[in-house]
Amino acid sequence: MTMAGNLRKVTGLGAVGGLRKMARLARRRPRVDLSHPARSPLGSSVVNCVSYQDGVRTPVGGDLVDTVERVRKSGHGFVWLGLHEPTNEEFAGIAELFDLHPLAVEDAVEAHQRPKVERYGEMLFAVFKTVCYVEHEQLTATSEVVDTGEIMVFVGQDFVISVRHGRHGSLGPLREDLESDPAQLAKGPSAVLHAIADHVVDEYLNVIDAVHADIDHVEMDVFAHNGERADPGRIYQLKRELLELKRAVVPLSRPLVDLADRPVRVVDPEIQAYFRDVSDHLLRAKEQIAAFDELLNSILQAHLAQVTVAQNSDMRKITAWAAIVAVPTMVCGVYGMNFDHMPELHWRYGYGMVIGVISLACLVLYRGFRRNGWL
To answer: Which of 8, 21, 67, 256 makes an SS bond possible with 279, Cβ 3.0 to 4.6 Å?
Structure first.
């Protein structure tokens, strides 16, 4: 049986609803990225299917099976298939066509995976967490600051399959940038893997810069108003969003180091040097996230300290006024006792003297507390 026959048998393309049907459905409308500027979304999970020879995009004739067959017959070049949130049924034929490992297929469809890079025979499976800064007019205790998605990438000798989850992280502009550099794209599927990793890490740095601005704003509010108007809920919200960003960045460190240092058959040796650069950028992102976490802890502690100082100041004021009020209370309490023989009860100027003594005592206490900063 010919290779074409084997591919058609494996993918079950003779049955209704097979891979050819999905490919024809995708060809009826332009293959575009769902979030690419000024483009419309597709009803199918197939975003794009492109083949490259020597770094140059080649015309796609026929369906996906024909494209893969042509690339494999030529012995060089590769196919880049882009998908967006495919279902199990949509991905089943593709998984069989490219002989993808079932565990990797399950991760790609279900999503919500930890960033990682795994090897399945001669194939690499990489998971990247994408992040996006959510613009807001004013940061509140419930503001969403960081939105996350995922990009899964299957890399083989002659194919790249990218599976995107979420409303952001479009790879359309990335594909166009790669096609403008045929020399880099000619290095094979690993060049695409590096470009995706570099794109994701660059977005980490962009989001970190935006989060830094929010932290600066909260810090200014805490110290500008001595913590009186600062909302601690905003600080906690930033810490929660920073934790979400940390979950995307930190686990990716080790896989990138492995891609840069350990020989992998599907990764061109020249590309490994580029992965070192991406790893350096990721290290910078990790360090900034750790620094921001410490800074938020310090801001929160400063806010709590300011609140404590303000409370102590209020308590001093209350205590001082209570001491002043205690003087007339004591005098009036003494002269309110029902005894017949008490000093100055029948003196003509007794009332005025008592009022004068009370006023003088209160004035002395007030000036003393005022001089000591209690009032």
So the answer is: 256
Give me the sign of the Cα torsion angle 234, 170, 130, 210: negative
Instruction: Give the strand pairing for 146-155 and 123-133.
Output: antiparallel
**Nearest of 157, 242, 162 to residue 197 by alpha carbon:** 162
Residues 157 and 189: beta-carbon distance below 8 Å? yes
Query: Can you tell me the distance from the alpha carbon of 136 to that of 214, in angstroms, rounded to the nearest whole number?
Result: 10
Residue carrying structure tokens 């980490």: 204
Measured in degrees and rounded to the nearest 5, phi and psi for residue 131 equal -130, 150
Selection from 218, 109, 212, 198 nearest residue 154 by Cα = 109
Q: Which ranges in the chain belong to alpha helices (H)?
A: 3-11, 19-27, 64-74, 88-97, 102-110, 172-179, 182-185, 189-224, 232-249, 253-261, 269-335, 350-371
Distance of alpha carbon 93 from alpha carbon 38, whole angstroms: 31
Q: What is the DSSP string of 152-214?
A: EEEE-SSEEEEEEESSS---HHHHHHHHT-HHHHTT-HHHHHHHHHHHHHHHHHHHHHHHHHH
Measured between alpha carbons, how far is 199 from 214 in angstroms, rounded to an integer?
A: 23
Say if strands 78-84 and 116-120 run parallel, antiparallel, or are unpaired: unpaired
β-pairing, 159-165 vs 78-84, is parallel
Give the burial string for 287-325 (b: 16+ CB within 10 Å, else e): ebbeebbebbeebbeebeebeeeeeeeeeeeeebeeebe
Distance CA 199, CA 130 (A): 9
> pLDDT at residue 6 above 60?
no
Residues near 165 by Cβ (< 8 Å), separated by ≥ 6? 84, 85, 111, 149, 150, 151, 152
Residue-wise pLDDT tens digits, 107-160: 999 888 889 999 998 899 999 999 998 888 777 777 788 888 999 999 998 899
At residue 18's C-alpha, the angle toward residues 14 and 20, to 5°, is 85
Closest-CA residue to 185 (of 31, 80, 98, 261) = 80
pLDDT per residue as tens digits for the range 205-244: 999 999 998 888 888 888 876 545 567 888 888 888 899 8
